[in-house]
Write a structure and sequence with these properties.
- Strands 12, 13, 14, 15, 16, 17, 18, 19, 20 and 21 form a 10-stranded mixed beta sheet that branches. The protein has a 6-stranded antiparallel barrel with strand order 33-34-39-38-37-36.
- The longest helix has 32 residues, at 995-1026.
- The protein starts with 21 loop residues before the first strand and ends with a helix.
- The chain is 45% helix and 15% strand.
- 36% of the residues are buried.
- The radius of gyration is 55 Å and the shape is extended.
- By secondary structure, it is an alpha+beta fold.
- Helix 21 packs across helix 23 and helix 30 (966-993) packs antiparallel against helix 31.
């Protein structure tokens, strides 16, 4: 390696002091590490680890120790001749926080470098001087070198599977899985952040952090085995849950949390594991989403646990007592009004801390033994009784000596913990609860009564004192709790047990506790004045009266004592203590001990108290005279009085009665009745009473006389029968406590009476009773005790005879139909009865060396024979019940019987056992019994299994076919298949050790598999076909089917195929199987995340398909046997298998893809090769599959797998060749492939690679066949063009912006139109229509539908092509469809405000209704709709759309956009900014060009994206029928903006010398005209530009256009105000003021200065005609302004009157100037012949008459107007009057009246008509001949003419008349015809004066600017 080029340094060596890396911590953002590449520079692991966050370091890992060279020391690395096999991780990480990215990957900067990414695994081949050489496992072909400092070495293990080796890391599998999971989650984690799913993002982040922490714990190697197992369970649970919520694959595991290997696991086990895992995850997700349904923090283990525990921690106790206190805490049930647990005792010092200072902050207790019934209690409370220890009364003065040490009631605390125990609220050890203290208010407040009152909600003042506690529910046995929660429950934690036995008694739970409760007492005051303050003292004494020391326990957490003193209640006759103690006397001392209660009055004074003596005594023995323990419940004790010494003398009172009962009536007489004479000196105190309650919880003491009599049966043998019978009435708990003793007694009775059978039945029944007790849930844990007894203590060698004899008798009795009531109970205990029988026989055989073996076998045979006879009985009632019990419990004895009974005989017994039962009797029980038999050890023996299968398989076959008891059938079938799988694996392992034995065993297994598949495979297949998809049993059946297939080999397939009796039956089977497989592949029965199950099923299906393919070629290929449909089904199945989603590896993550390839390989290649071979084997039969198989084969070739494509695309050529040879063409193939290609590519299949492969492979094939060269080339070109368009369409079809989807759709439908594929054409028409409608492009949607409608005729022919959408369902003829389409089109045109287009459609429909179908009702409707559209044209506001030119430049755009220009039709009120934003959204990287000039080569050829956008104007071609006519602008505006194919864009530029005072002189215009492919609007909102034309407009022509537009704008405003007087005046004000006020705008003075000067006219004589046009336009602007000002004057408000007057002054100056220079133009009113039409002015420009640069227009020079002669004021007035009367009507007005004050014409129907057509001049500017003039128009009045610009009206001049018009517009003639007679005899009085100029007043100067503003 040292000689490797490019490695001049040794990174990582110790001798390199350069920069070893730099690490920086981004503040608040995590870690960032950078690697400086080059010699001597590397990222050290120390820096990386230091920079990383702690939880990230776990993911990165550490490199371990380093050697002296600075390189990692290899530990646990496997070295071999093949190189160093190590798993490597790149020391790199991605920041775990937002907005960061990978800070370092090793890039390839030199030729020999191997680029690495984070976490990549590499294979090292060599190592040298800080560098490694090897390859990445992602790409094994690429080898290179990389720095060793970036690599962490990990030990590996090489696993050998056959000839293959796989290298896996040496870490534990769980750690590897965590690593893989984290890498997979990390990708999704980032995607969640990008998608804005913050909640899920945070959840995944927390889980990843927890997994990393747990991974480090697993790697630490310091955990104990039990903690390691729990941690693995927690980790795997978390990974599985995370995979589920992230929609990743389900991982299945075994009981040890290891991932199941499908190669080592049966299909049935895999399926069941998937079900369990899915159910567990579903349950957990439900718990996560519905916390109210579960106990928070309580897992499934908690719910299943029989024992529950409540952990309590006392945080603090705040209470003002002043003396010592005792706190008794316990659980209380308000329903039963009793405490249900032991007390937890806390002794609190007067200083406010625990007396034992070590308990400070460590006051903990766990209440145990709580069962499910306790948690189901309606309410449960935690109560605390507070007892102070000190004076009688806290208020007593300290001045005298007082009695101390008295236990006095102080208060209670109560908390409802029902929600915590039931799990409906959180239980957290860190959450603190405050429990207030309720103080004792009166001397008669007993603590127990106070608890009841507080629980009932009665208000008691607590004064802010109380306890702070924490509570938490814990589950499991106490030992388990200590392991699970060592920080909570340790050795210092007190344990308070439940009063009584737990629900489940554990075998090792040895107890001997007697709970004593001081209930109440009543005491007479005697000779005292007040009631006594009674204190009860309890002690335990022996027979001599000595006190037994330290056996009284006041509660958990307190040390035992010898005496217990009760609470003292002050001066109460009736005392109620309810104080509970625990008496724990050693078992050997119980029989001689008793409880003694002494009663004493306590005085508050110390001196008096010291003199008080015991005034009464009571006692009770712990054991009764019959040897049983003191019974549970209340005891009313006898109180004795006498001398205090006598009261404490046991000899004096033990002989006396202790309890009151009816037999001791003598105690009821007198208060001082002497008992047994006077020797004892004691008397009964009848006035006093005392009650206690006891509860015995002992596993050694019994309270049952019958049980005791049985245990001591030898003492009274005569009572044995009775005791055995009475045993069945003993409480189960008592029997279980003495289980071993009871069993010993029973078997000793049996053994000692072996010669007689007197007691056999009784002992047998007793044994059955005990076994059934053990089976009870409460004592279920004693199963192990019973089994241990059988193995270790049972010694009755002859018991098997008697037990088997009684059992057989019972069965025979029931078989005969005789009533046998014990048999059902016996069957329930059958398992343990046989354990006793078998153990007894083994002991006998060991003792007597196997004697009587044959007799024992005969006994067993007799029993089974009787049993089988019972099973064959047809009787009902008890017999039926016994048969059901036998079916249920017989399988439980097989494990024991199998060892002592011949397997063949046992198999025959079991076969007959099931077979004897009547066919339809107890079906479910029969199947369940068979399932248990199949799961037994006996079924593993092939001899037994073979016989059992003979009975089981026919039953299964019959029931599955009938669909009865299917769940039980599936369970049985699954059990059998599982056993066969395990037997097969065992036989294979056995064969490795013992060839012969293994082969024999394997042959037996194969034989059974053959029997299975012959009887059940076809049956199961048919059942799967019959079941509904939603049926949950379907997946079970499919799993069973896959299991059968998995165990079949070639011999099985061959034998099975040959077993069919006829070819039709075989064909039916194959047909059904192919259809079934295809259905299961297309719609799998398993969820999508069951990847392992799906892949295993695919593997088995693939084997089966290939086996059946062999059958096809062997049996169904020859001409006589060929079955087309069967072969067709095979091909469709194989293609469906190949194209299923679960095999498309390219859609999976790399980890998943590699895992599938390693485990299963690429099954697509296998099935693809099989399809290819099967196709070529067809020979001459191929033509029968054309075109049917074109689609499936196409679907297969589109799979993106290169080798598969290369091997299968040639099939297309084979199809072409086959069809061409038979028909001379391949049109059917071509049609089908074009049709299917469309749907396949649209569905996501196909790519550029496929297009190139298709092209190259087919072209090369065609070239080798000359007859197909030309047609084949044409076909390939056609398909390539279609593919290109389809791929373009697919690339944009899912974009949010559907603009480009529409373009690609149009490209496709045009393509289909060109190749005459009408069905596809129509299909894409409707796709386009749907896109338009979704974007509310109703106009374009209508035009799209119109294309389809135009294809249809008004005929009754049927529709040729299928019609998508609702129209195709019920419209069968072309007329019906066309009519429906037209109605839809009309609706769309209406929504798009294209009413003119809708009217055309209405007319066509009306024609059909009127003249063809004569449907006048429909005609009426359509005419009404048409009328509404006319009305909408005039009345509804319809803004004209804007048009935008958009150019897409650069090679980065798709081909359908690249370097093309489009014209877009904007929407209503759409701004260019909004349009551009929408335009750029699909191309976020595109750059917007600022220039409007076409870009150059450097942009069009660049790889980038450049978009150019600007507004263009419609270049309207005037409609002939609208020219020269006065038409409302609502009508004309539509044609100005619609049906446009030419659009222009004008760009101004300067040419020539620049005049700073007049910019118009050299303002040239470059006008570009774009021509689109189709007019807009159309089927798109845009069309591509097909041609452009650019012209240059001179400044003079620009001025003419500007003036024409200004005049047109004035006329438009006038018309608007005449049509709608309610319009606001502001726009008119601004328009007029901008023209007439020279201070606002320069007006046309700039034009005069630029173009009307003599130098310009001499330089440009060719512009003379255009100069006259400009002058004429200036002159015609005056009457327009006059009318506008008149309207303005009528509508102006008083506030704006000064502004209007100022505007009038300016206008007068302007008019005087214009008329003096350019003559007078006057407009004439006329009456509209149509009533109701508003006044309007029509402007019809003729752009063709404008001359442009390079095209001169000849015009005769117009003479300049001579100076106007002066005239008098009168003459001027006369001229004004004449002019006014000519324009506005025949009225007179005051000469001083302003224009705005002129009266409105009397008839509102007058119209100011003005025609601005430029067609009034001929092309050469000369007058036309008179004939032409006469033909064009007739003169309307004397002096009226048309100006050169086409205005109609009166033309006057101040000095000389202008030339007569050479062309008269017909429209003007029509309009003025009615006025011609009146105007003919009238002459204009316009005599000029000689000196007109001198007498003309100059216009007044405009007011100052400030004044003008104030007037506004």
């Amino acid at each position: 390696m040292s000689g490797t080029p490019g490695m001049s340094g040794t990174p990582g060596s110790s001798g390199t002091p350069g920069r070893s890396g730099s690490a920086a911590v981004a503040e608040g953002a995590g870690a960032r590490a950078e690697l400086l590449q080059g010699p001597g520079q590397h990222l050290s692991e120390g820096c990386a680890a230091a920079a990383a966050p702690s939880w990230l370091r776990i993911l990165v890992g550490s490199s371990g120790s380093r050697g002296t060279s600075g390189l990692p020391v290899l530990r646990g690395v496997r070295v071999s001749t093949r190189g160093l096999q190590v798993g490597l991780e790149v020391l790199q990480w991605e920041l775990a926080l937002v907005g960061t990215q990978a800070v370092w990957n090793f890039p390839r900067t030199k030729e020999h470098h191997l680029p690495l990414q984070i976490g990549e695994t590499v294979h090292i081949l060599q190592a040298s001087e800080g560098w490694y050489c090897g390859y990445s496992l992602r790409n094994r072909a690429a080898r290179g070198i990389f720095p060793a400092s970036l690599i962490r070495l990990k030990g590996t293990v090489v696993e050998q599977r056959g000839v293959e080796e796989s290298v896996v890391p040496a870490e534990m599998p769980t750690v590897q899985e965590i690593t893989t999971t984290l890498r997979e989650w990390a990708i999704i984690w980032k995607q969640l952040f990008v998608a804005g799913q913050t909640e899920r993002y945070g959840q995944v982040k927390r889980m990843m952090q927890e997994l990393m922490e747990q991974r480090s714990q697993l790697l630490s190697g310091t955990l104990p085995k039990d903690q390691l197992l729990r941690l693995r369970k927690e980790v795997t649970g978390k990974m599985d849950y995370g995979n589920k919520i992230l929609a990743l694959d389900l991982v299945v595991r075994d009981e040890d949390e290891n991932i199941l290997d499908p190669d080592r696991t049966s299909v049935i086990s895999l399926f069941q594991a998937h079900r369990r895992a899915a159910q567990t995850l579903t349950q957990r997700i439900q718990e996560e989403t519905s916390p109210q349904q579960r106990a928070p923090g309580r897992g499934t283990h908690g719910a299943a646990s029989p024992s529950h525990n409540l952990f309590l921690r006392v945080r603090n106790f705040v209470c003002r007592i002043g003396e010592e206190a005792q706190l008794f805490m316990a659980l209380y049930d308000p329903g039963e009004q009793r405490i249900i647990s032991e007390n937890y005792v806390i002794r609190w010092a007067s200083t406010g801390v625990p007396q034992d200072i070590e308990l400070l902050n460590n006051l903990k207790v766990v209440f145990t033994d709580l069962g499910s019934t306790d948690l189901k209690r309606e309410r449960l409370f935690l109560v605390c009784q507070i007892i102070r220890v000190g004076r009688m009364d806290l208020r007593d003065s300290q001045s005298r000596k007082l009695s101390t040490g008295l236990r006095r009631p102080f208060g209670i605390s109560v908390m409802d913990i029902t929600d915590i125990t039931k799990g409906t609220c959180d239980s957290d050890e860190d959450k603190q609860h405050f429990i207030p203290v309720h103080l004792v208010a009166a001397d008669g407040d007993f603590l127990h009564n106070m608890i009841r009152k507080v629980v009932e909600g009665k208000d008691i003042n607590h004064k802010g004192q109380g306890l702070w506690v924490s509570l938490k529910m814990l589950w499991g046995e106490l030992s388990q709790v200590r392991k699970d929660h060592p920080h909570l429950v340790d050795r210092s934690t007190a344990v308070a047990r439940k009063l009584g036995y737990p629900e489940v008694i554990m075998p090792g739970d040895v107890r001997n506790d007697i709970y004593l409760t001081l209930v109440q007492g009543e005491f007479d005051k005697g000779n005292k004045k007040t009631q006594k303050n009674v204190e009860v003292t309890v002690c335990v004494c022996d027979e001599a009266g000595n006190v037994v020391q330290n056996v009284i326990h006041t509660g958990a957490g307190d040390s035992p004592t010898s005496h217990y003193r009760s609470v003292v209640y002050y001066q109460q006759r009736h005392q109620r203590w309810m104080e509970t103690l625990k008496i724990a006397v050693p078992i050997e001392d119980v029989h001689r001990t008793h409880l003694r209660f002494t009663f004493r009055h306590r005085s508050s004074s110390e001196s008096k108290d010291r003199s008080e003596r015991i005034f009464s005594m009571a006692f009770v023995r712990l054991m009764r005279p019959d040897g049983t323990t003191l019974r549970d419940g209340e005891h009313d004790l006898v109180l004795y009085k006498g001398d205090s010494k006598k009261l404490e003398d046991a000899s004096a009172y033990l002989s006396l009665p202790s309890e009151r009962n009816l037999s001791e009536s003598k105690l009821l007489s007198g208060s001082s009745f002497r008992v047994s004479g006077t020797t004892s000196g004691l008397a009964v105190s009848s006035r006093d009473s005392f009650q206690i309650s006891t509860l015995v919880c002992s596993t050694k003491l019994t309270q049952n006389v019958n049980l005791l009599g049985l245990l001591k049966w030898r003492s009274k043998p005569s009572l044995l029968c009775g005791n055995l019978q009475k045993l069945m009435n003993v409480d189960g708990g008592e029997v279980i406590k003495f289980l071993q003793d009871t069993l010993d007694a029973l078997f000793s009775i049996m053994m000692e009476h072996s010669e007689t059978d007197v007691y056999d039945t009784l002992v047998f029944d007793a044994l059955v009773f005990i076994v059934r007790l053990v089976a009870d849930r409460k004592f279920q844990h004693f199963n192990t005790v019973l089994e241990a007894y059988i193995r270790q203590h049972f010694s009755a060698t002859l018991a098997y005879k008697k037990l088997l004899s009684v059992l057989t008798q019972y069965v025979e009795q029931a078989g005969r139909g005789e009533p046998c009531e014990p048999l059902t109970r016996t069957f329930k205990a059958l398992e343990y009865i046989f354990k006793f029988i078998v153990r007894s026989r083994h002991l006998f055989a060991q003792l007597y060396e196997g004697k009587e073996a044959a007799e024992f076998q005969r006994s067993l045979q007799r029993f089974f024979l009787a049993l089988n006879q019972l099973m064959g009985s047809p009787l009902e009632g008890p017999t039926l019940i016994s048969q059901g019990a036998a079916l249920k419990y017989l399988p439980s004895i097989l494990e024991d019987v199998f060892g002592i009974f011949d397997s063949s005989a046992l198999g025959a017994v079991l076969r007959d056992f099931v077979g004897n039962l009547l066919p339809q009797r107890l079906l479910r029980q029969k199947l369940q019994s068979l399932s248990h038999i199949a799961s037994s050890k006996a079924f593993q023996s092939h001899e037994c299994r073979e016989l059992v299968l003979q009975a089981a398989l026919p039953i299964l076959q019959e029931l599955i076919q009938a669909g009865e008891e299917e769940d039980a059938c599936i369970e049985l079938l699954s059990s059998i298949l599982e056993v066969l799988y395990q037997a097969q694996k065992s036989a294979e392992k056995l064969r490795e050790r013992h060839q012969d034995r293994g082969d024999a065993e394997l042959a037996q297994v194969k034989k059974h598999i053959q029997v299975m598949l012959e009887q059940l495979l076809h049956t199961v297949n048919r059942r799967v076909i019959v079941l509904d998809r939603e049926n949950p049993l379907r997946s079970h059946y499919v799993a069973c089917m896959a299991a059968i297939l998995s165990q079949m080999d070639k011999d099985h397939y061959s034998t099975y195929i040959q077993a069919f009796p006829s070819r039709p039956e075989l064909m039916d089977f194959l047909m059904e199987t192919f259809i079934l497989f295809k259905d299961l592949i297309g719609k799998t029965v398993y969820p999508g995340d069951w990847v392992v199950m799906n892949m295993v099923q695919n593997r088995e299906f693939l084997r089966a398909i290939n086996q059946f393919a062999t059958t096809l070629t062997e049996m169904f290929l020859s001409n006589s046997n060929f079955e087309l449909q069967l072969w067709n089904n095979y091909f469709h199945l194989a293609v469906a298998f190949l194209t299923q989603d679960s095999l498309q590896l390219e859609n999976f993550s790399p980890a998943k893809r590699n895992s599938i390839l390693a485990k299963y390989g690429d099954m697509r290649a296998t099935i693809g090769a099989s399809i290819r071979d099967m196709w070529y084997s067809l020979g001459q039969r191929k033509i029968e599959f054309i075109p049917g198989m074109v689609g499936p084969i196409l679907e297969m070739t589109l799979v993106p797998e290169l080798e598969l494509r290369k091997s299968t695309i040639p099939i297309f050529f084979d199809m072409m060749l086959c069809e061409h040879r038979l028909t001379g063409s391949f049109s059917r193939f071509e049609d089908e492939i074009l049709r299917r290609l469309d749907s396949e590519v649209e569905g996501g299949r196909g790519d550029e690679q496929y297009m190139q492969l298709f092209k190259s492979i087919l072209l090369s094939c065609c070239q080798s066949h000359p007859e197909l060269a030309k047609p084949g080339e044409d076909f390939v070109r056609l398909v390539s063009e279609l593919l290109e368009r389809l791929l373009d369409y697919r690339a944009v079809m899912n974009d949010e912006n559907k603009t480009y989807s529409m373009s690609c759709t149009v490209n496709l439908l045009n393509f289909y139109k060109e190749i005459d594929r009408q069905a596809m054409y129509i299909r894409y028409l409707y796709k386009l229509k749907d896109l338009h409608i979704s974007y509310e492009n109703y106009t374009e949607g209508a035009y799209t539908l119109l294309l389809h409608a135009r294809l249809l005729a008004w005929s009754e022919e049927l529709n040729a092509a299928p019609v998508p959408g609702p129209h195709g369902l019920h419209l069968h003829t072309q007329r019906q469809l066309k009519e429906a389409l037209y109605n839809q089109i009309i609706e769309y045109f209406d929504q798009g405000k294209m009413w003119e287009e809708a009217i055309h459609i209405c007319k066509e429909l009306a024609e059909q209704y009127e003249s063809h179908v004569f449907d006048y009702e429909m005609l009426s409707d359509i005419l009404q709709r048409e009328a509404k559209f006319y009305e909408k044209i005039l009345k509804v506001l319809r803004p004209s759309p804007d048009y935008f030119a958009v150019g897409y430049y650069g090679q980065g755009f798709p081909t359908f956009l690249r370097n093309k220009v489009f014209i877009y039709r904007g929407k209503e009120y759409e701004r260019r900014e909004d349009f551009e934003m929408q335009l750029l959204s699909p191309f976020p990287n595109a750059e917007k060009l600022k220039s409007t000039s076409p870009p150059g080569q450097e942009i069009t050829a660049s790889p980038g994206q450049y978009i150019q956008c600007f507004t263009v104007q419609p270049a309207e071609e005037a409609k002939v029928r609208l020219r020269g006519r006065s038409i409302p602008e609502q009508i004309t505006n539509f044609y100005k903006a619609n049906h446009i194919q030419r659009f222009s864009y004008s760009r101004p530029f300067k040419r020539g010398p620049n005049d700073p005072d007049n910019e118009f002189a050299n303002m040239w215009i470059e006008r570009t005209t774009f021509r689109t492919a189709y007019p807009l609007p159309g089927i798109l909102r845009w069309f591509v530009v097909t041609s452009t034309e650019t012209i240059i407009i001179s400044p003079l022509e620009n001025a003419i256009e500007t003036m024409m537009k200004t005049n047109e704008k004035i006329m438009s405003e006038i018309n608007r105000h005449q049509n709608d007087p309610s319009l606001p005046i502001n726009p008119l004000s601004m328009l007029l003021n901008g023209i007439v006020d020279p201070a606002v705008m320069g007006g046309f003075a700039k034009y005069e200065k630029a173009f009307f000067q003599e130098p310009y006219m001499q330089e440009h004589p060719e512009d003379a005609g255009n100069i006259e046009k400009l002058k004429d336009l200036i002159a015609w602007q005056i009457p327009l302004l006059a009318e506008g000002i008149r309207i303005h004057g009528q509508k102006v408000t008083e506030d704006l009157r000064p502004f209007h007057e100022r505007m009038e002054q300016c206008f007068e100056q302007l008019r005087a100037k214009v008329e003096s220079q350019y003559g007078v133009r006057e407009m004439m009113f006329f009456e509209d012949r149509r009533s109701g039409r508003p006044r309007s002015i029509a402007w019809v420009p003729d752009w063709d008459q404008l001359s442009h640069t390079g095209a001169s227009t000849e015009a005769s020079p117009t003479p300049k107007p001579a100076p106007r002669p002066s005239e008098s004021e009168d003459h001027r007035t006369e001229r004004k009057e004449n002019r006014t009367s000519s324009i506005f009507g025949p009225w007179r007005q005051d000469p001083r009246q302003s224009i705005s004050e002129l009266p409105e014409p009397k008839d509102k129907k007058w119209r100011l008509s003005c025609n601005m057509s430029l067609s009034s001049l001929s092309a050469d500017g000369k007058q036309p001949p008179p004939s032409q003039a006469a033909a064009d128009a007739q003169p309307s009045a004397a002096g009226s003419s048309l100006s050169p610009t086409g205005f109609g009206g009166r033309v006057k001049s101040a000095s000389k008349l202008p030339p007569l018009p050479r062309k008269f517009n017909p429209a003007v003639y029509e309009t003025f015809l009615e006025q011609s007679d009146a105007a003919a005899g009238r002459k204009a009085s316009t005599s000029p004066t000689v000196d007109g100029n001198k007498s003309l007043k100059s216009p007044p100067l405009p007011p100052p600017k400030s004044r003008r503003l104030s007037q506004l």
